[in-house]
């Protein structure tokens, strides 16, 4: 979350990476794309954090009234980071906004504002503690997300008013909420981990095994460790 002069990131992201056995680094906003690419080359993988809205021009749309604050330079940098990590087959894990940026990178688009653009949606901007699992999601049994959670239904927290709308190959939908909103996407293959989740597992880390398992799996893939069944 930033206004392009001052940035902050909630520490739960780095805490979760540390607790899962990884070494976290925060990246600054840098406008030179060759430096952004060099930063990406030095990392084992990429965790895309939550934040404001994605610029709709990136998926060919004009802004609608319900669009929130956009940060075009952050969009650009994150797309460049994803591009480099994708080319180099480094693990990519997107959370909330990160899931949306990942979807846009692959050629998909977004609901700019769920309430304005989709009929009869659940409450996806919960008014409850950040760790509270407010709505359920259904996980596809053939997905990596299922492999990680070993469950077809889990409960998640929810702090988003945007979401993936169309999802383009190599990404596919791996979980939805009961209103049909896309809550998780994934792509890649055995050798390349690419996942986006619309909820905030880092906020549930201490209280939810599924959240811990997600980070542990991501860090194992970062470190190139063997994944058990
Ligand atoms: Mn949600």
Derived structural class = alpha+beta
Across the major sheet, the strand order is 1-2-9-8-7-4-5
- Strands, count: 9
Poorly predicted regions:
none
Q: What portion of residues is helical?
A: 25-40%
Q: Which key phrases capture this entry?
A:
229 residues; alpha+beta; 7-stranded mixed β-sheet; two-stranded antiparallel ribbon; 7 helices; 29% helix; binds manganese (II) ion
Provide a concise account of the structure shown.
The protein has 229 residues and is α+β, with helices and mostly antiparallel strands. Helix content is 29%, strand content 17%.
Describe the structure.
With 229 residues, the chain is α+β, with helices and mostly antiparallel strands. The chain has helices at residues 12-19, 33-42, 72-87, 97-105, 114-117, 144-149, 209-222; strands at 46-48, 92-95, 110-111, 135-139, 153-156, 163-164, 172-177, 182-189, 192-197. It has a seven-stranded mixed beta sheet, sandwiched between helices. Strands 3-6 form a two-stranded antiparallel ribbon. The longest helix has 16 residues, at 72-87. The model has no long low-confidence stretch (mean pLDDT 95). The structure holds manganese (II) ion.
Strands, helices and their partners?
Blueprint: H1 12-19, H2 33-42, E1 46-48, H3 72-87, E2 92-95, H4 97-105, E3 110-111, H5 114-117, E4 135-139, H6 144-149, E5 153-156, E6 163-164, E7 172-177, E8 182-189, E9 192-197, H7 209-222
Parallel strand pairs: 1-2, 2-9
Antiparallel strand pairs: 3-6, 4-5, 4-7, 7-8, 8-9
Helix pairs in contact: 2-3
The structure holds manganese (II) ion (MN).
Manganese (II) ion binds at residues 124, 135, 158, 160, 177, 183, 198-199.
């Amino acid at each position: 979350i930033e206004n392009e002069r001052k940035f902050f990131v909630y520490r739960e992201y780095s805490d979760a990476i540390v607790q899962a056995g990884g070494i976290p680094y925060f990246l600054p906003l840098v406008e030179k794309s060759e430096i952004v690419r060099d930063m990406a080359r030095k990392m084992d993988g990429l965790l895309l954090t939550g934040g404001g809205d994605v610029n709709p021009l990136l998926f060919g749309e004009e802004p609608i009234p319900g669009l929130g604050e956009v940060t075009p330079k952050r969009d650009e940098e994150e797309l460049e980071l994803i591009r480099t990590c994708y080319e180099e087959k480094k693990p990519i894990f997107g959370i909330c906004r990160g899931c949306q940026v990942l979807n846009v990178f692959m050629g998909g688009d977004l609901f700019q504002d769920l309430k304005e653009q989709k009929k009869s949606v659940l409450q996806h901007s919960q008014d409850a503690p950040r760790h509270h699992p407010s709505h359920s999601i259904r996980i596809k049994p053939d997905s990596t997300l299922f492999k990680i959670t070993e469950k077809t239904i889990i409960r998640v927290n929810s702090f988003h008013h945007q979401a993936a709308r169309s999802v383009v190959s190599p990404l596919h939908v791996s979980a939805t909420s009961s209103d049909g909103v896309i809550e998780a996407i994934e792509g890649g293959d055995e050798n390349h981990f690419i996942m986006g989740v619309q909820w905030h597992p880092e906020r549930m880390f201490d209280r939810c095994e599924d959240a811990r398992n997600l980070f542990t799996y991501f860090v194992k893939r970062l470190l190139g460790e063997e994944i058990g069944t």
